[in-house]
Amino acid sequence: MTIDLRSDTVTKPSQAMRDFMAHAPVGDDVFDEDPMVHQLQNEVAILLGKEAALYCPSGCMTNQLAVNIQTQPGDEVILETDAHIFNYETTAASFLSRVQLNPVKAKSKGILSVDIIEDAIREPAYYMPVSRLIIIENTHNRAGGTIYTIEKVKELSDFAHSKGILIHLDGARLWNACAATGTSPKEYAQYFDTVSVCFSKGLGAPVGSAICGSKENITKARRMRKIWGGGMRQAGIIAAGALYALRNNRDRLKEDNAKARRFAEIVAKNAKNATIDLDSVETNIVLLELTEKNPIIPKYLSDLSAKGVRLSQGKRTSLRAVAHLDVTMDECEKAAYIVSEYLS
After folding, report:
1. Residues 305, 2: Cα–Cα separation, whole Å
2. Cα–Cα distance between 42 and 259 in angstroms, integer?
3. Which domains does the chain have, with CATH numbers?
4. Residue 298 to residues 135, 309, 338: CA-CA distances in angstroms?
5. Can you list the positions of beta strands (E) in the chain?
6. Do the beta carbons of residue 130 and residue 102 sit within 8 Å?
7. Most buried in the list 122, 210, 222, 334, measured by CB within 10 Å?
8. Are 39 and 243 in contact (CB under 8 A)?
């Protein structure tokens, strides 16, 4: 048996989710006639306290739509150095929206502060780009699933808007942050002009993310989604999986956070050739920093896979484990001991 901790995207739909999808009423969503898509978009918009939402194939698309509809070509977008949009979206912002990304390094745990952002804002000179948009990622993937508190979010939002700058939330794993803090999605979302949330990570749906915001912004996003080839016909079948996940799988995310914590504690205590910053294990992601100077990550991953544990690469010198609904606490503990033995 293989214990797959590569990502929370590897989950399979449950039988109950499959049954819900199989019986979903559908229509042509390009004609805006799919009732299940409408239901999903309405429910996620209400949950986040926004006027409207748009269902899309991926979080990459929802993030890039947020960039596109809130910037002009030649603008600049401020974000953290390890942000998903900067590292894992294939230079899409530059390619699709002709904007420049300005990555700035957070002092700790990937969490940006006002002073760091303030230093990155351009002066109003014709030979400089316009600082148009700030993006924060909650939870922060490459920092190990760390959380922006609601107090920090409000501080950053108030500052951005005082400078006439828009702010977007890459909330792919916002659900995990809410499970850990008790803060509602609506409380977080109120401070952002646009919000992206994912259904196919911790919630366990097979496909999709949503961008939420004002009716005006979502109308723009719908048009751009079509231009980018993201118009889907009888999308209600996959939207039903996302809707089922939204209704049924949010409350259990605290279990994934607990499984990741237990995995981290075992490895931190027993592995001799890797370290874990336990203070950064706030949700369902664990980063294992290897002590070898220039580790060959594919070899580590291959060796562990042969032993029955699948991990993924974190940063250049780290491995990543992600807890999710398809692994039990016992399996996470077993995986932790296997990893510890290998790394000792």
Report:
1. 8
2. 32
3. 15-248 (3.40.640.10), 252-342 (3.90.1150.10)
4. 31, 14, 17
5. 3-4, 52-56, 76-80, 100-104, 131-137, 166-171, 194-198, 209-213, 274-275, 285-290, 309-310, 312-313, 318-322
6. no
7. 210
8. yes
Q: What are phi and psi of 168, to 5 degrees?
A: -115, 140
Q: What is the mean pLDDT of the chain?
A: 97
State the pLDDT confidence band at 1, using cuts at 50, 70 and 90. confident
CB atoms within 10 A of CB 310: 17
**Distances in whole angstroms, Cα of residue 145 to Cα of each of 284, 314, 335, 340:** 7, 11, 19, 21
Burial class for 320, CB neighbours closer than 10 Å (0-12, 13-18, 19+): buried
Distance of alpha carbon 122 from alpha carbon 128, whole angstroms: 7
What count of other Cβ atoms lies within 10 Å of the Cβ of residue 75?
19
Distance of CA 144 to the CA centre of its chain: 12
- C-alpha to C-alpha distance for 112 and 48, rounded to whole angstroms: 22
CB–CB of 135/70 below 8 Å?
A: no
pLDDT digits (tens, 9 = 90+) for 110-148: 999 999 999 999 999 999 999 999 999 999 999 999 999
**CA 67 to CA 61: how far, in whole Å?**
10
Do 100 and 77 contact (CB within 8 A), yes or no? yes
Burial tier of 293 (Cβ tally within 10 Å: 0-12, 13-18, 19+): exposed
Tens of pLDDT, residues 62-90: 999 999 999 999 999 999 999 999 999 99
> What burial class does residue 203 get, using C-beta atoms within 10 Å of its C-beta: 0-12 exposed, 13-18 middle, 19+ buried?
buried
In this structure, what token pair is assigned to residue 81? 């150095």
- Residues contacting 304, CB < 8 A, separation 6+: 310, 311, 319, 338, 339, 342
User: Could you tell me the two tokens for 152?
Assistant: 């920090």
Question: Whole-prediction pTM value?
Answer: 0.96
For residue 325, count CB atoms less than 10 angstroms from its CB and return exposed for 0-12, middle for 13-18, buried for 19 or more. Answer: buried
Q: Answer positive or negative: Cα dihedral of 124, 158, 79, 196.
A: negative
